[in-house]
Amino acid sequence: MGRFHRHPDGTVHAHDHDGAAHDHAQLEHDVGDHTGYESTGSARVAVLEDILSENDRVADANRHDFAHASVRTVNLMSSPGAGKTTLLKRTLAVLCDRIRIGVLEGDIATSLDADELGGLGAAISLVNTSAGFGGECHLDAVMVRSGLARLPLDDLDLVIVENVGNLVCPAEFDVGEHAKAMVYAVTEGEEKPLKYPVMFRAVDVVVVNKIDLLPHLDFELDRFLDNLAGVNPTATVIRTSARTGEGVDEWCRWLAGVVGPSADER
Amino acid sequence: MPRTHFVVLVRPGVNEGTVPATTKAVPLHELALCEAIARTVLDRAEGRRVTRVALRIGHFRQVVPDALTFSWELLTSDTDLDGADLEVEHIPATVACDDCAALTRLQIPVLVCGTCGSHRVELRTGDEFLVVSFDVAEEVGDGSIPSSS
Question: Is the Cβ of A5 closer than 8 Å to some Cβ of chain B?
Answer without folding.
Answer: yes
